[in-house]
Amino acid sequence: MKTFIVGIAGGVGARLARLLTSAGDQVDGLYRRPEQGEHLAAHGVHATHGDLTRLDAPTLATHLDGTDVLVFAAGAGGEGGTAAVTAIDGTGLTTAIEAARLAGVPRLLLVSVFPEAWRDREVSDTFEHYIDVKKKADAALAATDLDWVILRPAALTNDPGTGRVSLAPALIHTQVTRDDVAAVLARLIHTPGIRRRILELTQGPDPISDAVRRQIEK
Ligand SMILES: NC(=O)c1ccc[n+]([C@@H]2O[C@H](COP(=O)([O-])OP(=O)(O)OC[C@H]3O[C@@H](n4cnc5c(N)ncnc54)[C@H](OP(=O)(O)O)[C@@H]3O)[C@@H](O)[C@H]2O)c1
């Protein structure tokens, strides 16, 4: 099994890369800052340097040879304003979709967001733009013929993983650790029976293996 992670040096992406590598999977991915390559290599993770906003789909596709699953875990992460969100979370995803199609990658997992995230707070135009771009990215992926899965985690924390979550088509937005998001993604990668589904993810009572298994054949 070979997985390519766009955003492999990110909070979720790096955790996922380490999990898959230690389980013996082949892993590659795109990282933006040159120094991140050394850090990933120190954890036994091979990755590819490149800026998603400067790559076209045919160029990205050349890195996807033999890839079974493409994971899109990149995001502007609050840097660069609305233009960066549009370029990375929005256009970046459509570039990845097109690259998957060109390279014959059958499956694409997208790390998205709850559309109603933090509606209990006063939200800014910047946050509204982020949610709008994320929702349009979900729609773009759901319109493809790929074996897609859209995973919408609640607010991410760096607390240690609990191994327990709630995973379902509709949940109330709370929190979830990046460790647990990565562990759910790793399970989903190895559960091809879950396809063309939107799943929301929060911290919860269910062991991750049970939570994922329960979503097969629903
Ligand atoms: N924060 C939350 O509470 C929350 C909640 C739900 C969903 N999400 C979504 O979850 C996803 C993963 O979150 P995270 O915390 O892992 O994010 P993160 O730590 O910011 O990781 C995102 C990665 O994407 C990379 N990236 C950004 N622009 C790029 C470009 N042009 N080319 C290549 N790589 C690029 C970043 O590179 P650099 O390291 O160089 O910046 C970073 O490593 C994001 O899409 C986010 O929108 C976040």
Can you give a write-up of this model?
The protein is of the alpha/beta class and 218 residues long. It has a single domain, classed as Rossmann fold, CATH 3.40.50.720. Helices cover 39% and strands 22% of the residues. It contains seven helices and eleven strands. The strands form two sheets. It has a nine-stranded mixed β-sheet with strand order 3-2-1-4-5-6-10-8-11, sandwiched between helices. Helix 1 (11-22) packs across helix 6 and helix 4 (81-103) runs parallel beside helix 5. It is globular and about 40 Å long. The mean pLDDT is 96. NADP nicotinamide-adenine-dinucleotide phosphate (NAP) binds at residues 7, 9-13, 30, 32-33, 51-53, 73-77, 88-89, 111, 113, 153, 155-156.
Topology of helices and strands:
Layout: E1 2-6, H1 11-22, E2 26-31, H2 34-42, E3 48-49, H3 57-61, E4 69-72, H4 81-103, E5 107-111, H5 125-142, E6 147-153, E7 155-157, E8 164-168, E9 175-177, H6 178-189, E10 197-203, E11 206-207, H7 208-213
Bound molecules: NADP nicotinamide-adenine-dinucleotide phosphate (NAP).
NADP nicotinamide-adenine-dinucleotide phosphate binds at residues 7, 9-13, 30, 32-33, 51-53, 73-77, 88-89, 111, 113, 153, 155-156.
